[in-house]
UniProtKB/TrEMBL annotation:
The keyword tRNA-binding appears for this protein: no
Residue spans crossing the bilayer: 21-41
Entry-linked SMART domains: FtsA (SM00842)
Protein's gene: ftsA
Chief subcellular location: membrane
PANTHER family attached to this UniProt entry: CELL DIVISION PROTEIN FTSA (PTHR32432:SF4), CELL DIVISION PROTEIN FTSA-RELATED (PTHR32432)
UniProt cross-references to NCBIfam families, sorted A to Z: ftsA
Residue ranges constituting the SHS2 domain according to the UniProt record: 24-225
Keyword Metal-binding assigned: no
Family named by the database record: Belongs to the FtsA/MreB family.
Protein name from the UniProt record: Cell division protein FtsA
Organism: Tropicimonas omnivorans
Membrane topology: Peripheral membrane protein
Amino acid sequence: MTDLYQSQRMMRRMRQQALDRGVIAILDVGTFKIACLVLRFDGETRFRESDGIGSLAGQAGFRVIGAATTRSRGVAFGEIDTMNETERAIRTAVQAAQKMAGMRVDHVIACFSGAHPRSYGLEGRIDLDDSVVEGGDVARVLAACDVPDFGNNREVLHAQPVNFSIDHRSGLGDPRGQMGNSLSADMHLLTVDTQPIQNLLYCIKRCDLELAGLASSAYAAGISALVEDEQELGSACIDLGGGTTGLSVFIKKHMIYSDAVRIGGDHVTVDISKGLQIPLSTAERIKTFYGGVVATGMDDREMIEIGGDTGDWEHDRRTVSRAELIGIMRPRVEEILEEVRARLDAAGFDHLPAQQIVLTGGGSQIPGLDGLASRILGQQVRLGRPLRVQGLPQAATGPAFASSVGLALFAAHPQDEWWDFEIPSDRYPARSLKRAVRWFRDNW
């Protein structure tokens, strides 16, 4: 536990040092694309005091001065599959973003979508030595949370306090300065598999970059795609990516649940390729221009030229109706939404006040998806686009860049986590996290 705690604190310090220098890079490593944003922070707002324990703690203003994206190589299901190809793709994206920004960047904050995320809800309680809650009391109550034994091959990615209670008063965002006899805390713990994180860290170091933070893509997408009221009242963000579909549930402006379905837009492309016997590149083009999930009477008469370069004239001049294309795409999209419905039911999403569902990510742009999702998920569904941030190019404002923009907001407005408090060494949880992230210690 000590190694994990200290290494996470080191990453937080590196992030703060990069912010103090005024520039940091954002790296979204996905199955379909790798996006890089270079952020420049404004001096006037960079040193603002913390506003409390929450999603706006330690605010900072920033502007995007460089942006680049490239086709992802060597990544499957949100995890690195071929190291050399992924390294080249990351170098390509980072160098293009640096060229646009006109400066070199040494520190990056990365997000990823794989590694089988799993959520835990923890609770801790302490008696206050003094009647006034101080920062040390917050650290002690977080250390008092009983962390489950989640296995030797998993690591903690996020450990965020989501609620505090003083005596019988619950729903407190920041208890410091308030008076009482006992302090309780609810914390959300997100764990992931160790091996994919090790591969990502090693790949980033091979690109001559220093890692200043890690985040879940589903968490980052929720930050950017959900509006403030949705984050407050209880909503779910579904990030339809290429290899995986990320899921995050927010309430009171905190993420309380996250999961991932290992099916995404690339699986739809593969279905089209197999069903029509065409190359993957052609299947992706047809899906982008003519795809859909709801067929109408006109779709039987709308013919799509498949094209090809096999040399067989009859084969290359084939046409299919749009209704046939929709018939191939719809079963896979329904499978994704059914899996998401099962994860939401397991998380108790029906008990939240608002129950709003927001679809984002590149796969959410399929025409008719919102209507199909509302029938399967049975809730209020809307399509979400990332928040507009200063300097973001028009090409990077679509739903496919929700994770990238959310990671930029995560870098500028980090929510306080377990690692941000000075927990006394004798208060470390004894039975949990014993096999901590050695990869941090070995690679710094």
